Amino acid sequence: MSDKKDKKEKELKEREHKEKDQKNPAEAEPSRRSRKKQNTHKAILHQAKVLFEKEGIGNVTIEQISESADVSRSTFFSHFASVDDLLKEISNEEINDVFDAAEKGDGKLTVSALLKQLNDDTYPYPYLSCEVLMRGILSKGESNFAQVDRFLRKEIVTDKSYANTLEEFSSKELSALILGAFFGLIFQKMINDESFTNPDETSVTIQKFIKYLQNQEELS
Asked: CA–CA separation, 123 vs 16, rounded Å?
């Protein structure tokens, strides 16, 4: 049902674009150019992700990305100043997508919803996701992942279900425990060379851990 709905929405949008171009011929050409540029930008990002995941960030060149995306080297540079610039956009895109998608779930952004979305978004490109994260953490300045940590701390303090646990641990410590548990599960799969095919394998465990932290009646 979801696929059919997405297909219908896509067809409707394409029809609307076409009708708009026909009604406004003067604006049609810039509109088409803009859509083409956006599609090219997305294609470069997608192909770069595929190559980075397969070969590793340090083993992929601009030429390989350009060839895979079927664009020229000059076209690549019209979208990105460098590979580092592209990686920065991938990193920002991942974090923004996690927040956006998690909030759309049931209309409320929670610790559980955010971690589920983070888990689901990690699975298509697990090695790339972890490598981009580590590059951000080890670089000077604030990592964009810091906003995830800030959200978790704030939500833990305001969510009454963590009240008893907060008597023993600070929100900073609980955020570290939750993120540590999540990445620990991901890293364990990598250590054991396990495939990333079913997001539920780690999602179910991390959700149980979050519920455990929420439902503590007494810690001693």
From this structure: 34
